[in-house]
Design brief:
By secondary structure, the chain is of the alpha/beta class. The chain has 2 domains: 3-19 and 230-415, UDP-n-acetylglucosamine1-carboxyvinyl-transferase, Chain; 22-227, Enolpyruvate transferase domain (UDP-n-acetylglucosamine1-carboxyvinyl-transferase, Chain, Alpha-beta prism), CATH 3.65.10.10. Helix content is 31%, strand content 25%. The protein has helices at 22-31, 48-60, 85-88, 98-105, 124-132, 163-173, 189-200, 232-244, 260-269, 306-314, 333-339, 369-381, 392-395, 401-407, and strands at 3-7, 13-17, 38-42, 63-67, 70-74, 82-83, 107-111, 136-140, 143-147, 155-157, 179-183, 205-206, 212-216, 225-227, 248-252, 272-276, 279-283, 293-294, 319-323, 343-347, 350-354, 363-365, 385-389, 411-415. It has a 4-stranded mixed sheet with strand order 22-23-1-24, covered by helices on one side. It binds ligand EPZ. The site of ligand EPZ has 25 residues, from helix 1, helix 5, helix 6 and helix 12. Residues 22-23, 26, 93, 119, 121-126, 160, 162-165, 186, 190, 303-304, 326-327, 369-370, 397 line the site of ligand EPZ.
Length: 417
């Protein structure tokens, strides 16, 4: 398994281009199942999770071709409605084929995604919505079997503003009979990006980006050519890295409109932020002030940035408190940060971080995608050498992260095992 070795202490300087958003690419690639011609998706990141969903779409009968940064998908030959365990277990967002399969093939047999390191990750809200829209569901042998001659539009209320739940429902409702209203819908930019794509295919969706989304079902959709939006979490990770190393980094190709909560906190920390043409420049301040954070659904502070921000707080002046309200077990990185000298106490879903003058390098273990990103960030400032093991977690959501950091001046390299 690959490792990443970092010599800490170098400020990051220069420009970095932010890639396409993993969490927009996954639902948008799945939406190709709703059409029967060639879709072209540009700015698709080349990540393990994206490769996983490409494999699943091929398994279902779609033709998937990958070019440089581009993916072309033709689902005219879609015939298989089963997403098997060995594919779904590798990437739980595979559940995103459920809605499109029921909408297009009138049935689906999808392996239930297990939990993962950060939580149980149930899909009860996805399933309840499909049932309310007229699907019959059966859970057996670790699979959900769904069938519906034609889904009917319905007024739905989501118990939790689930991101992939909202996305699954959009892809089911877009071809349903009549009007669906989704209340307490997720407002993430990735949901809006999917809705924009479905509308370009001929869908009739209004309200995406707000908590009430209205979908008027249509009889069929046509293939499209579109580009994936920039990855706001990759961008946030580099913004924190610039503040952390007291560097000066210009992020190109990202959307400042998606960074409100994080930019607000980074300004409070003492970083300097300038929104420039097509990008964001972040410069570290002379000191790092301690700032409290509570993760919330968008547009609140993103849970996917919690681990990265905790590294910044681990060397801030004073005490900060981070509350994780989205997932029940998303502090796994704390024990690894402690190995680097961080002073953090966890009680339930709250972590208290007492800033220390410096971290010191050590071997650490990545456990989930964003936790592994936080360990790389910690290595950038820790005195001496940090070795991050099991970086396959990192490769699920960051394309060539170590190369991007090296180009910004970090002493970082990947050791391939
Ligand atoms: C999406 O996961 C993202 N993944 C996650 O990013 C992100 O952390 C999360 O949204 C929150 O922003 C993708 O978009 C592929 P949720 P998702 O359903 O949709 C509960 C990363 O690092 N819930 O919004 O699975 C759930 O338990 C990943 O890129 C139910 O109770 O998250 C959680 O507590 C990690 N029942 C909360 O809602 C359901 O049916 C939010 O989960 C669904 C969710």
């Amino acid at each position: 398994m690959d490792r990443i070795v970092i010599e800490g202490g170098r400020p990051l300087k220069g420009e970095v281009r932010i890639g396409g958003a993993k969490n927009a690419a996954l639902p948008i690639l799945a939406s190709a199942l709703l059409t029967d011609g060639w879709n072209t998706f540009d700015n698709v990141p080349n990540l393990m999770d994206v490769q996983s969903i490409e494999r699943l779409l091929s398994h279902l009968g779609a033709v998937v071709e990958r070019g440089p940064g581009e993916v072309r998908i033709n689902a005219a030959g879609l015939k298989n409605s089963e997403a098997p365990y060995d594919l779904v277990r590798k990437m739980r967002a595979s559940i995103l084929v459920l809605g499109p399969l029921v909408a297009r093939l009138k049935k689906a047999r999808v392996s239930l995604p297990g939990g993962c390191a950060i939580g149980a990750r149930p899909i009860n809200i996805h399933l309840k919505a499909l049932e309310e829209m007229g699907a019959t569901l059966e859970l057996k042998g670790g699979y959900v079997e769904a069938a519906a001659p034609r889904l009917r539009g319905k007024e739905l209320f989501l118990d939790v503003p689930t991101v992939t739940g909202t996305e699954n429902i959009l892809m089911a409702a877009v071809l349903a009979e009549g009007r669906t209203i989704i209340r307490n819908a997720a407002r993430e930019p990735e949901v809006s990006a999917l809705a924009d794509t479905l509308n370009r295919m001929g869908g009739r969706i209004t309200g995406a980006g707000t908590s009430v989304i209205t979908v008027d079902g249509v009889s069929s959709l046509s293939p499209v050519s579109t580009a994936i939006i920039p990855d706001r979490i990759e961008a946030g990770t580099f913004m924190v890295a610039a503040a952390l190393t007291r560097g000066d980094v210009l992020l190109k190709g990202c959307d400042p409109a998606h960074q409100g909560a994080l930019m607000d906190k980074l300004l409070m920390v003492g970083a300097k932020i300038q929104v420039e043409e097509g990008g964001i420049r972040v410069r570290g301040g002379d000191t790092i002030a301690s700032v409290d954070v509570k993760t919330l659904p968008y547009p609140g502070f993103p849970t996917d940035m919690q681990a990265q921000f905790m590294v910044l707080m681990s060397v801030a002046k004073g005490l900060s408190v981070i509350s994780e309200t989205i997932f029940e077990n998303r502090f796994i990185h704390v024990s690894e940060l402690r190995r680097l000298g961080a002073d953090i106490i966890v009680s339930g879903n709250t972590a208290a971080i007492k800033g220390v003058p410096a971290l010191s390098g050590a071997p650490v273990m990545a456990t989930d995608l964003r936790a592994s990103a936080s360990l790389v960030l910690a290595g950038l400032i820790a005195k001496g050498t940090t070795v991050v093991n099991r970086v396959y977690h990192l490769d699920r959501g960051y394309e060539k992260m170590e190369e991007k950091f090296a180009r910004l001046g970090a002493a970082i390299k990947r050791i391939r095992d």
